[in-house]
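Please, structure for the following, as tokens.
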Amino acid sequence: MHRICFGLLVFICLGITVECQGGGGGGSGGGGFSGGSHHSWSSSGSCKGSRCSSSTVITLSIIGGIIGFVSLVFGIIYCKKSCTGKPSRSNAVFVQQDFQQNYELEKYDSSIFKSGHWKSQYLQYGRWHGPHRCSLVFNGHSMSIKGSGSDDIGTFTLDGVYASQTQRIGLTKTYQRGTGNLSENLGHQVTIQLKWYPENNQFEGKWYVQTAKYHGDDKFVLKFDGQHIETVYEKL
């Protein structure tokens, strides 16, 4: 995309330069025609002189502009397709964003990262799907997340990272092929990036998918839904 735009810019600049140089010689004939030998067109109809050069430059500029415009349109379409469904940052970078600011203000609470059952909902095709239940385990030493669950696409596993200081979660959902909706489940991965919203007592953000058949992204929410049974018994 960048190469197309750069090439187009160079082509237009060269065209403008050549056109300016060719157009400068047309002012010397202001006195009219003094004889047949000064005509810009010979008797055979062939093009000669500065007028012909200027016409050629204009024609090439128009053709180049059309080609450049078409290339730009296709470039935008390609860029939009390739960028849709892909987050601008990796999960590791996302969870650490604004770390220093939040750390200084001490606006974080590690108790929101609870191992147990969570329920999620995601927006796709103009409607909400879920809630679907999944199990998550937060490792406070490695700041990593492991989990599993199922939704209307199929059975999946979850791997991710989180940061208490920024109150962010980054997950990679991997579907088990052959489960759930066979037309939708390609055994693909979904990137999920979420931030904590205390006013709603839940994590909110977006999911991203890029496969050979589908590119998309939209809203995603995750809310705690209770501890694991074994964890509850351990506390008694």
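The chain has two domains: 1-23+48-83, 91-235. Residues 12-44, 232-236 have pLDDT under 50 and may be disordered.
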